């Protein structure tokens, strides 16, 4: 017997001040706090229904049946809280390239946390939902909320969670995702960041700077200081990628087309059109700009990238139930 289906939607988020490295691998407690912007363009829809006749979970991603091992580990956290052992059928559709540095894991686990907890009849507070999502993917804790979101690093399972900073920003901020390569990346975020934590001689300096960046970018956002916000976001991204080059073995997510995109942003700035770039663990570049400059920026980028490679987002909403 199957219970009624519960479907949740969660949007991706892009960190403006990056988290890169964990204090606790199992609980996914970060080494530093971070701040992100939830995006309206990219999202995951996930449906969960309990199946009394099943002996294990079924996981279907983008219409393809997948190995459920990783998802089952996460669902077990929900079942433990609910004191229920019934397996579930989980169907997930990613409206974002998977594992390409566009935060698909953030939207995926935020949606799964919400749909899964509701399917097992748990009524979790936003804080506890954020804590749960974090156990699947660290950045997923931020996708519970819309707008600008801060992840408080904490020191244990109870104290590490995201909180809304400005959930419904009135600031006309846009983000252009330049998809230079939508393929799965060669070095997964989890493995890459742990290599950096264990081997980079510059990691202690990263922690110190990241905490300073977090406080400064919050002040910039409150003041609607686009220049300061953009400069901090760009620097945070480049420091993260520099860490990867300083690790042993070193690794790199930046590709030739990533550098083309970065150069275009720098040329736009040189000509008085203010915009900044950021990158996560993947080759794709995100351009932070204001709505008034969007068309001019797109016109320049279209000289080097196809229309379908340029995806425009604004601030997006938090996770929500679609059907239940």
UniProtKB/TrEMBL annotation:
The keyword Nucleotide-binding applies. Residues 176-309 form the Mvd1 C-terminal domain. One of its GO terms (cellular component) is cytosol. It is an enzyme of class 4 (lyase). Keywords: ATP-binding, Lipid biosynthesis, Lipid metabolism, Lyase, Nucleotide-binding. GO terms for molecular function: ATP binding; diphosphomevalonate decarboxylase activity. Transmembrane segments: none annotated. Pfam families: MDD_C (PF18376), MVD-like_N (PF22700). Its EC number is 4.1.1.33. Residues 10-162 form the Diphosphomevalonate decarboxylase-like N-terminal domain. GO terms for biological process: isopentenyl diphosphate biosynthetic process, mevalonate pathway. Belongs to the diphosphomevalonate decarboxylase family. PANTHER family: DIPHOSPHOMEVALONATE DECARBOXYLASE. This is diphosphomevalonate decarboxylase.
């Amino acid at each position: 017997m199957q219970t009624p289906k519960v479907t949740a939607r969660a949007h991706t988020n892009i960190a403006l001040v990056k988290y890169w490295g964990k204090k606790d691998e199992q609980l996914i407690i970060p080494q530093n706090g971070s701040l992100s912007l939830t995006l309206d363009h990219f999202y995951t829809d996930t449906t969960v229904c309990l199946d009394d006749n099943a002996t294990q979970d079924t996981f279907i991603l983008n219409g393809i049946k997948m190995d459920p091992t990783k998802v089952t580990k996460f669902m077990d956290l929900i079942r433990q809280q609910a004191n229920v052992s019934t397996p579930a059928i989980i169907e997930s559709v990613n409206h974002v390239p998977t594992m390409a540095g566009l935060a698909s894991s953030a939207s995926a686990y935020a949606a799964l946390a919400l749909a899964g907890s509701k399917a097992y009849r748990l009524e979790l507070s936003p804080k506890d939902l954020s804590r749960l999502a974090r156990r699947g993917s660290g950045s997923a804790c931020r996708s519970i909320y819309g707008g600008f979101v801060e992840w408080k690093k904490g020191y244990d399972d109870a104290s590490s969670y995201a909180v809304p900073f400005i959930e419904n920003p009135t600031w006309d901020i846009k983000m252009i995702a330049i998809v230079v390569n939508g393929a799965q990346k060669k070095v997964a975020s989890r493995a890459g960041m742990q290599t950096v934590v264990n081997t980079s001689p510059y990691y202690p300096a990263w922690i110190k700077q990241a905490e300073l960046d977090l406080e400064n970018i919050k002040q910039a956002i409150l003041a609607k200081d686009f220049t300061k916000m953009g400069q901090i976001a760009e620097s945070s991204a480049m420091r993260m990628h520099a860490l990867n080059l300083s690790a042993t073995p070193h690794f790199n997510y930046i590709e030739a087309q990533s550098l083309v995109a970065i150069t275009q942003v720098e040329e736009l700035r040189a000509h008085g059109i203010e915009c900044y770039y950021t990158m996560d663990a993947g080759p794709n570049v995100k351009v932070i700009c204001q709505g008034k400059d969007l068309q001019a920026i797109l016109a320049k980028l279209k000289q080097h990238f196809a229309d379908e490679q340029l995806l425009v987002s604004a601030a997006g909403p938090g996770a929500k139930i679609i059907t239940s």
